[in-house]
Amino acid sequence: MASISAVLSPTNLIHSSIKPAEILLTSVSFHRRRTHTFLRLSPGRPTRLFAALTAQDSSSVAERKLYVGNIPRNVDNEELKRIVEEHGAVEKAEVMYDKYSGRSRRFAFVTMKTVDDANAAIEKLNETDVGGRTIKVNITEKPVVNTVDMSLLEAEESQFIDSPHKVYVGNISSTVSTETLKNFFSEKGKVLSAKVSRVPGTSKASGYGFVTFSSEEEVEAAISSFNNALLEGQPIRVNKA
């Protein structure tokens, strides 16, 4: 079979003596995904190329973006990038910080260069120890069509009352709703507000949430009462956000 460079040379494209034909070129790879490209050659005129690609030349950001949870507070963007890029090329690393205290919220998002880099980072880093903490690494799923009314979720987000007196709640079951989270923490004190974080553009829970209070004393009481407590059969992690 002719090579791609030979078939696409100016001589063959413009002065081809090949009869009109459809040639299937295999083993063309974009980001290591196999694709098939069809070329239709017509003698005496420049050739039009018709391609049916089974994979995009570049992956969407959602397929390459990782959630990294339970990281130590002293890990900043540069340190996180250094840790992750040992297992793949990193495009961007961003630790999330609380807008009131300026402290790390113990989670981050890392965008890898390719899907293969993202998968390698998950395989090598998920459930590993970083600074004495077991981190969680998974991919933030690409937006999908949902039966849930997204306007309701947006309204829920807009109703959240932020506060400097806030706890981060990790390892939340996917079945836990914002209302469930608020009611659970209300058993030990007055909750100002609560929310379960979602994968952007979807109704899928991200596995963590936040609960706000009116005082630091209520925050300390919530941590003391609920850290490692069972919420819908799953032990949750509670610490200051």
Describe this structure in words.
- The chain is α+β, with helices and mostly antiparallel strands and 241 residues long.
- The protein contains 8 helices and 15 strands.
- A 4-stranded antiparallel sheet has the order 5-6-4-9. The chain has a 4-stranded antiparallel sheet with strand order 11-12-10-15.
- A hairpin with a 2-residue loop joins strand 13 and strand 14.
- The radius of gyration is 25 Å and the shape is globular.
- The protein starts with a helix and ends with a strand.
Q: What's this, in brief?
A:
By secondary structure, this protein is α+β, with helices and mostly antiparallel strands. Helix content is 25%, strand content 33%.
Oligomer: single chain
Describe the sheet with the most strands: 4 strands, antiparallel
Mean pLDDT: 74
Spans of at least 5 consecutive residues whose pLDDT stays below 50 are 1-59, 142-148
DSSP strand count: 15
Question: What is the count of helical runs?
Answer: 8
Tell me the strand percentage band: 25-35%
Approximately how much helix is present in the residues? Answer: 10-25%
The structure class reads alpha+beta
Through-space gap between termini: 61 Å
Reading the helices and strands in chain order gives: HHEEEHEHEEHEEEHEHEEHEEE
How does the overall form come out from the CA principal axes? globular
**Strand order across the biggest sheet?**
5-6-4-9
Which radius of gyration do the C-alpha atoms yield?
25 Å
